[in-house]
Amino acid sequence: MSVIRLQNITKQYDQQLILREVFFRLDQSDRVGLIGKNGASKTTLLKLILKQEFPDDGTVEIDEGLRIGYFSQFTELTDDVPIDRILESVFIEIQATERALNEVGKQLESPELKPLEMEHALTRQAALLENMDRKAGWTYRHRIDTALSRLGFSDQYRSRPVGALSGGWRNRAALAKLLLESPDVLLLDEPTNFLDLAGLAWLESWLLDFSGGVILVSHDRHFIDQVVNRVVEVENYHLQEYKGNYSEYVRKKQIRFKNLENQFEHEATLLVLESEAIEDRRAARKNPSEHLKRKLANIKKEKPARPVENIVTDIYQGLRVRDNLCLVEHLMKSYDSQVIMADLSFSVHRGDRLAVIGPNGIGKSTLIRLLTEQELPDSGMIKWAGGVEYIFFNQIIEELDPNESVTKYVNFRGMAFNTPRKQVNRFLALLRFTDLDIYRQIKNLSGGERARVALAVCLLSGASVVILDEPTSHLDVTTTQVMEAALAHFPGALIVASHDRFFIDKLANRLLVFEEGGRLRTVAGNWTTWQASADVD
Question: What one-character-per-residue DSSP string does 316-385 give?
C-alpha cells in the first residue's frame, strides 16, 4: 500500500524544465535508491514530498498522519548541550513513563495502601508496562549508546556541546537523532558523506532492519547496493524505475539501452531515406520541418566513440614512469598524547593503486598531509625517488582559476602544454566535456565538472603519482564513474584515501589499512577480496 504518491508532476525553475509528467509511489516497506546526475532534480523531488516546494502541475499526495524524517548532507545540530542529552530528549515520553512506573512502585510499597487503591495502582502499572514494551522503552539508553558508538562519538565528543563540534560531527549528530526518532518514512540525501567504514556498515544494517519506507539519495554505490530494493533514476526530466538493488539496476539498464539502440537503428535508417528524399527535392522544398531538421542534426552528431585505450595511449606516449617511486620508513606522528602513526612503513611502485582505509580520525588524512608535505613527521622518512613528482588532486581543485576556460586551464599546464590541443581535447571528451563545455569558464561549472577539470590537470601534469583524499565525496555516480575510468588507465601510481567501497573495488590493487595504535597493515587486492579473506579467517 502506497503512503506517498506523485501524480503527473511537472516542475520548472525560471522557465527551465526540471521534471515533466513524473509519476512515483512509495510503499510502506520500499527502500528506494534515487539516482541521477548532479542537478538532475533528486533533491527537488524530496522537497516536493516535504512540501518545501510545489509542482507547477500535478499533485503530491501524502497519507494523513505520516511522519516523515529528512536528512541531508547539510543537516547539522547546533544546540549548546551535549549530544547524549539531545538524544535522550527524543525519548521524553518513555522517560515520563519511567517516572510514572517509579511513582507506582513506591505507592505499591506503602503499607498504608488500601485494597481499592492497590487495584488502581496495579491496573495503572500494567498499562505503563505495556506502553514501555510497545515503545521498546527498556532499551532506549542502549540504542543511544549504540548509535553514538557506531557513528564514532567517543566519550570526549559526547560530553562537548554540539555547537562546539565541527560540521561533520554536527552532521552525524543530526543523523543519530533522526534515526532514533524512527519516523514512518526516511528521506536521506547523501547520509554517508561524513561516515567511516564502520559507520557505513552500521547504517546499512539499521536501514535493513527499519520497517518503514526509505528514499535514499547517495553517490555510494556499495551502500545503495546493500540497502535498496528499488532504483529510480532521474533521466531526461522523467523517472525510470528498476526493481532490485544497484547491481540489478546496472544489468537491467544495459538491457534497456540495447533495446533503445535497436529502436534507434531502425529510426536512423528511416531518417537517412527521408534525408535522401529531401536532397532530391531541395529546390522545391526550401523550408523542411524544424522537427525533421533536429532529427537529422542529431544523426550527424552521432559518431562512433574512439576507444578509450587509444586516446589514453596517445596522450601518455611521452610520460616515463620509473619502477620505484616512493619509500616510507618508520614513520611516527602524534598529536599531543595521541599516537596517530607508529613505525609505519610501505613503498610505492609504478602501477600501484593504493587505497588508504580505516575509521574516521585514525590517521588517513594525516598520512595524505605527510605525503604531500603539508605536515612533517615526528620521526621517520618519506623519500621520493629522484625526479619523481606527485600531484595532489584536492589542492588542484582549491586552486582552480574561476575566470579561465576549461580548455585554456588544462592545455597550458604540465604535459598538456607540449601536447597537440586536439589530442588534449579528445582526452577532455573522455572526461565528458563536449566541444561547447571546454570553452565554459570554470566559475560556471558544477562541483562535479570542476572535479573533472582538476582530474584532467592531475592526469596530464606529467606527475608519476596522483594523490587523492576522499575524491568522490559530493560527486554524483556518473562523475565518479568517469573519474574511475580515467584513473584506471593512468600509467603511474595512485594513492587515495576513501570510504567509497565501490570506488576502492574498481581501482585498488593494494590496501593500506589503519588499525588502532597507529599501526598500518598492507593487504593485497581490493575491498571485496580483503573482506572475503577476513570472512574466511
Answer: TTT----SEEEEEEEEEEEETTEEEEEEEEEEEETT-EEEEE-STTSSHHHHHHHHTTSS--SEEEEEEP
The grid cell for 320 is 616515463
CATH homologous superfamily for 1-67+183-244? P-loop containing nucleotide triphosphate hydrolases (3.40.50.300)
On average, the pLDDT of the chain sits at 85
Distances (CA, A) of 251 to 1, 243, 255, 256, 258: 28, 11, 7, 9, 11
Instruction: Round to whole Å and give the CA distance between 202 and 187.
Output: 18
Task: Please name which of 358, 356, 335, 368 lies closest in space to residue 152, comparing C-alpha atoms.
Answer: 358
Q: Residue 75: which of 175, 151, 142 has the closest Cα?
A: 175
pLDDT-based confidence at residue 272 (cuts at 50, 70, 90): low
What are the domain boundaries of the chain?
1-67+183-244, 254-302, 314-536
pLDDT tens by residue, 455-470 = 999 988 989 999 999 8
Same fold flag, 1-67+183-244 and 314-536? yes
Confidence of residue 287 (pLDDT cuts 50, 70, 90): very low
- List the end-to-end C-alpha distance of the chain, in Å, as a whole number: 44
Interval 97-108 mean pLDDT: 88
> Radius of gyration of the chain from Cα atoms?
28
314-536 CATH fold:
Rossmann fold (3.40.50)
Residues paired with 152 in a beta bridge: none
Percent of the chain's residues with pLDDT above 90: 37
**Local confidence band at 300 (pLDDT 50, 70, 90 cut-offs):** very low
d(CA 236, CA 257): 14
Distance CA 224, CA 87 (A): 27
